[in-house]
UniProtKB/TrEMBL annotation:
UniProt xrefs under Pfam families: PGK
Residues that coordinate or bind (2R)-3-phosphoglycerate: 34, 116, 153
EC supergroup of this enzyme: transferase
Family of the protein in this entry: Belongs to the phosphoglycerate kinase family.
Name by which UniProt lists this protein: Phosphoglycerate kinase
Positions that bind substrate: 19-21, 34, 57-60, 116, 153
Pathway: Carbohydrate degradation; glycolysis; pyruvate from D-glyceraldehyde 3-phosphate: step 2/5
Protein's organism: Streptomyces solincola
Major location (coarse): cytoplasm
InterPro entries reported for this sequence: Phosphoglycerate_kinase, Phosphoglycerate_kinase_CS, Phosphoglycerate_kinase_N, Phosphoglycerate_kinase_sf
Length: 400
């Protein structure tokens, strides 16, 4: 983007593919981290006199307009953060979008409605995606890719559009890639990785690669129970991906062969019922050994002994990557595990990278100062796929 700014963008229509996929509760954005993350790019372009057209997806609507997934509120928040009015077009390539872009004076910003309201954005069919990309291209002279959280998606606005316009990487993508490079090349050791979250299948690819790079892997959250089950333990009614058990067992064996410390919870908080995240009504969790989860109970957070163990294992690490909460942190009864990991990273001099929408949101909503961490990534799946060593369509198109 610095190169683009050097060439001059005054009067040019610049399409910024952002990732404004933020959590919202009705009309309220509950974590605006991803909006703030794209501000440097939007501001620099606006200050240089560009007509800035910001586009993003939000959620996973089914290729048609759906008010539950409007970008209207994210656009309003972007305007507040910029301290300038932001126009909002309630379509992506239709008359509202054209009208909004034509109405921009130099240095002004417009946000288009959710790209995924159009089936062409996510279409598997190349021609359908290309056709949508061409309609987006008609709205701009230049493309800036800055939606790091979506670079792993081969979608029209991420993968096809940059091939149709002169294209540049924005500040966010450049920063994120720079940070992830520090986790892949010449990483400072000990290198510890903390993985949590619900879906073990989403994380297995990254474990595969990290077993070759990390010194320690600490597992928590919903995915821990499939590993515990793979060790032959009873996990009660905890989240379990039966079809992944064998692969988890193979990773445990591989970790032992490679001398990678692979830590699973030694105790967990259990309850017979999943807590109500809306009312946050108190539940009555019990702490049990990970060897003795009762048949009618569900594991919902790591226990106190595991919290201490994991904090110890993080205390002397030089590099830490953390993706995924340790428990159902949205409910106060099950937030301590996630807090303990966040606290251990905040207290440590290690270069720590927090990735993934949930862990990044957890750090912020649990009241931690973002500055206590080396980097809070806006990418969940994107940073995982980067660390898996996969080619990312949104980066490949920009490199082309
Ligand atoms: C994310 O939240 O990880 C990105 O915005 C990508 O969203 P997606 O998983 O719906 O493609």
């Amino acid at each position: 983007i610095d190169e683009l700014l050097r060439q001059g963008v005054a009067g040019k229509r610049v399409f910024v593919r952002a990732d404004l996929n933020v959590p919202q509760d009705g009309t309220t954005i509950t974590d605006d981290g991803r909006i703030r993350a794209v501000l440097p790019t939007v501001k620099a372009l606006a200050d240089a006199g560009a007509k800035v057209v910001v586009a993003s997806h939000l959620g996973r609507p089914k290729g048609a307009p759906d008010p539950a997934y409007t970008l209207r509120f994210a656009a309003a928040r972007l305007g507040e953060l910029l301290g300038a009015p932001v126009a909002f077009a309630d379509d992506t390539v239709g008359s509202a979008a054209h009208h909004a872009v034509e109405g921009l004076a130099d240095g002004q910003v417009a946000v288009l409605e959710n790209l995924r309201f159009n089936p062409g954005e996510t279409a598997k069919d190349d021609a359908e995606r290309a056709e949508f990309a061409a309609r987006l291209a008609a709205l701009a002279d230049v493309y800036v890719g800055d939606g790091f959280g979506a670079v792993h998606r081969a979608h029209a606005s991420v993968h096809d559009l940059p091939k149709l316009l002169p294209s540049y990487a924005g500040y966010l993508i450049t920063t994120e890639v720079g940070v992830l490079e520090r986790l892949t090349d010449d990483v400072k050791r000990p290198y510890a990785v903390v993985l949590g979250g619900a879906k073990v299948s989403d994380k297995l690819g990254v474990i595969d690669n990290l077993l070759k790079k990390a010194d320690r892997i600490l597992i928590g959250g919903g995915m821990a129970y499939t590993f515990l089950a793979a060790q032959g333990k009873e996990v009660g009614i905890s989240l379990l991906q039966e079809d992944q058990k064998e692969r988890c067992a193979a990773y445990l064996r591989e970790a032992a062969e490679r001398g990678v410390e692979f830590l699973l919870p030694v105790d967990v908080l259990v309850s017979p019922e999943f807590p109500d995240l809306k009312t946050k009504a108190p539940t009555n969790p019990t702490t049990v050994s990970a060897d003795a989860i009762p048949a009618d109970q569900e594991g919902l957070d790591i226990g106190p002994e595991t919290r201490r163990l994991y904090a110890d294992k993080l205390a002397d690490a030089a590099t830490v990557f953390w993706n995924g909460p340790m428990g159902v942190f949205e409910h106060p009864d099950y937030a301590e595990g996630t807090k303990a990991v966040a606290q251990a990273l905040a207290d440590s001099p290690a270069f720590s990278v927090v990735g993934g929408g949930d862990s990044a949101a957890a750090v912020r909503t649990l009241g931690f100062d973002e500055k206590a961490f080396g980097h809070i990534s806006t990418g969940g799946g994107a940073s995982l796929e980067y660390l898996e060593g996969k080619a990312l369509p949104g980066l490949e198109s920009l490199e082309d």
